[in-house]
Amino acid sequence: MERPVPRTVVIIGASRGIGREMCRLYAERGDRVIAGVRALPAVIGASAMSSLIQYRVVDVGSPLSVGAFQDALAGTPVDILINSAGVLGGDRQNLDDMDYEAWRHAFDINTIAPFLVTTALLDNLRAADEAKVITLTSQMGSLNQRSTGSYAYRSSKAAANKVMQVMALELEAEGIVVCPVHPGWVKTDMGGPQADITVEESASGLVTLIDRLTLAQTGRFWTWEGVEHPW
What is the maximal distance between C-alpha atoms in the chain? Predict the structure, then answer.
């Protein structure tokens, strides 16, 4: 496959883990990266990775903060938007012990925030050719998977999958690709050291997948390896 021409990539949740590594990979190949982070102190020193990475503060749980982020990007075509921010939903997610506030917060960040950010940047996406929206969800949100526990995380990711599927149908006529993607079980602060793959493996696979996605694949659920995942 030919090397893609330089593009503008917006990555939300870019201060650590998969988001941070994807920033590095895109900048390494010459793309302009706008990295959305909750606070700049979290990425002090990270800017040394590349002059092509521009950090901007955005709290995806705050419509006001997302609105300010939208204003800052006004007039900037966005080729790729990656919604990478996510939370686990608290330690208490069991039948006999549920943290309901953490569950609500999980829906705010894992489900509502990707919709909020994407709709805020629709004009930017429409200004690009063949724009793509990728939201990192999880196979734990697949109704096809039978497993127990983690109610907050699973339900918020299942809802995010549906949100992206509906959005894909509504934006297909405008040529915008929208897909939820399972990044794998990754050795991050969230995934833990016992996970299957490294951040580098996941991020590299995701970049390759995103390059290959076309309108023919929009609205479908994918894995970091480029395999379609059952809903």
Answer: 54
User: 16: which 2 tokens?
Assistant: 């650590």
For the chain, the domains span 8-223
CATH superfamily of 8-223: NAD(P)-binding Rossmann-like Domain (3.40.50.720)
Quickly count: other Cβ atoms within 10 Å of residue 196's Cβ. Answer: 11
Q: Which residues of 152-178 are buried (b: 16+ CB within 10 A; e: fewer)?
A: bbbbbbbbbbebbbebbeebeeeebbb
Owner of token pair 């993607």: 181
Kindly report, residue by residue over 37-78, the tens digit of the pLDDT.
998 865 555 555 678 999 999 999 999 999 999 999 999 999
Pairing assessment for the beta strands 8-12 and 80-83 based on DSSP bridges? parallel
User: Which of 5, 8, 1, 16 shows the shortest CA–CA distance to 203?
Assistant: 16
* pTM to 2 decimal places: 0.92
Q: 172-200 pLDDT, tens per residue?
A: 999 999 999 999 877 666 666 676 778 89
What distances in angstroms separate CA 122 from CA 52, 71, 125, 169, 171, one per listed residue?
A: 23, 12, 5, 15, 10
Which residues make beta-bridge pairs with 197?
186
Three state DSSP letters for 186-210: ECCCCCCCCCCECHHHHHHHHHHHH
